[in-house]
Design a protein that fits this description.
The complex is a heterodimer. By secondary structure, chain A is mainly α. Chain A is built from 4 helices and no strands. Chain A has helices spanning 3-33, 37-44, 48-76, 81-107. Chain A is elongated, with a radius of gyration of 17 Å. Helices cover 34% and strands 14% of the residues of chain B. By secondary structure, chain B is α+β, with helices and mostly antiparallel strands. The termini of chain B are far apart. In chain B, the strands form 2 sheets. A 5-stranded mixed beta sheet of chain B has the order 2-1-5-3-4. Chain B has helices at 34-44, 79-82, 107-115, 138-144, 154-158, 160-164, 171-181, 189-196, 210-214, 221-237, and strands spanning 7-14, 20-27, 64-67, 70-73, 87-91, 98-100, 103-104. Chain B has 2 domains: 7-104, Ubiquitin-like (UB roll) (Roll), CATH 3.10.20; 107-237, Alpha-helical ferredoxin (Fumarate Reductase Iron-sulfur Protein, Chain B, domain 2), CATH 1.10.1060. Classes of the chains: A mainly alpha, B alpha+beta. Chain A binds chain B through residues 1-7, 74-76, 81, and chain B through 161, 164-165, 197-199, 201, 203-204, 229, 232-233, 235-237, 241, 243.
Chain lengths: 108, 243
């Protein structure tokens, strides 16, 4: 791993740590309040704040996970550097698309 | 193979990479070291046995071997302290090619010292006055914590990151780079930071701390590597090294 990838992985981890806690707090709040799906969607639809929060979360998770997967593939699989890089990048792109789709579903 | 009460069964690695363990019976004595066992076998049972040692007092770092699965300096390891039952298995250091029997090929280990720029780069000539390094200076304290390495290769043999990435510079070379990075007399740090921040450099360390766990000199190469991670990150963010 290079210093550039190291920096990106740590940055995204630092960004996600409080976001995961906030996400858990939101789940806890929604379940304790007995919010229905309709009630949740009423809060999230058209909300720039929720789109930004979960959009940033998805981007950070995609970068963080793909760097981590690249390390695992480099160390534990017979793939060469280039092959593991391509596979990990594809995985990151997939996470980004699926995550973005999920965010769009609740904010639009 | 069974062994009498005053005997020990010692299995030694024989041959090269494609070798096998062979068992020998060795008399047990008081205050016997693992190196004593190996020497006894070579003197009395098989003079063709190859192994490496020099000082026998824990200074030279040449007698490291794998003893019952873990790397140890054999000249300072008492048999009585590690023996479980009546059998001991001794092999060459792991993560290094085997030359023959218990002698590992240390070339990859020392080549990585060179690659990590683990060589002092003097900033003055012998005609100038000796540099004054205050013992209480932060740089000297950081260097002191890592400087007693005897190059035995035990940390390298214990490192999971080396096992998974044979090009990784490893704990000893990076620990050495850290001591030089904190040496006020050295002028090679720009090149050294570049050398330790490449794709096989310090950022491959997973901080498992096997190096610290097994180091016979009680050094903590993981802490040195963490220092290198900080310094290379600073250098990257200030544009002194490329990513």
């Amino acid at each position: 791993m290079t210093v550039r990838l190291y920096l990106w992985q740590r940055l995204t981890a630092a960004l996600m740590a409080p976001m995961v806690l906030a996400h858990l707090a939101i789940i806890f709040y929604a379940s304790r309040q007995g919010l229905t799906a309709a009630a949740m969607l009423a809060r999230t639809r058209g909300s720039f704040g929720w789109a930004l929060f979960y959009g940033v979360f998805v981007v950070a998770a995609s970068i963080h996970a793909s760097i981590g997967l690249n390390n695992v593939l480099c160390e534990w699989s017979p793939l060469k550097e280039r092959g593991s890089g391509v596979l990990a990048s594809a995985f990151g792109a997939l996470l980004f698309l699926l995550g973005l789709r999920a965010v769009m579903a609740v904010v639009s | 193979m069974g062994s009498a009460p005053d005997e020990l069964e010692v299995s030694l690695w024989r041959g090269g990479e494609a070798g096998r363990y062979e068992a020998y019976r060795v008399p047990l004595k008081e205050n016997q070291t693992v190196l004593d066992l190996v020497t006894w076998i070579q003197r009395y049972l098989d003079p063709t046995l190859s192994y490496r040692f020099a000082c026998r007092v824990g200074m030279c770092g040449s007698c490291a071997m794998t003893v019952d699965g873990r790397p140890r300096w054999t000249c300072r390891t008492l048999v009585a302290k590690i023996l479980k039952g009546r059998r001991l298995e001794i092999g060459p250091l792991q993560n290094l090619p085997v030359i023959k029997d218990l002698a590992a090929d240390m070339r990859p280990f020392f080549e990585k010292w060179q690659r990590a720029k683990g060589v002092f780069a003097p900033s003055q000539t012998r005609r100038e006055a000796p540099a004054k390094i205050p013992p209480q200076s932060a740089l000297r304290i950081a260097a002191d914590a890592a400087i007693e390495c005897i190059n035995c290769g035990i940390c390298y043999a214990a490192c999971d990151s080396v096992r998974w990435n044979r090009d990784y510079l490893g704990p000893a070379a990076l620990n050495r780079a850290w001591t030089l990075l904190n040496d006020a007399r050295d002028k090679g740090n720009a090149e050294r930071l570049r050398a330790v921040s490449g794709k096989d450099g310090c950022h491959n360390c997973h901080s498992h701390q096997s190096c610290e766990r097994h180091c016979p000199k009680a050094l903590n190469p993981t802490a040195s590597i963490a220092g290198l991670k900080r310094k290379t990150l600073e250098a990257y963010l200030t544009g002194r090294i490329a990513g």
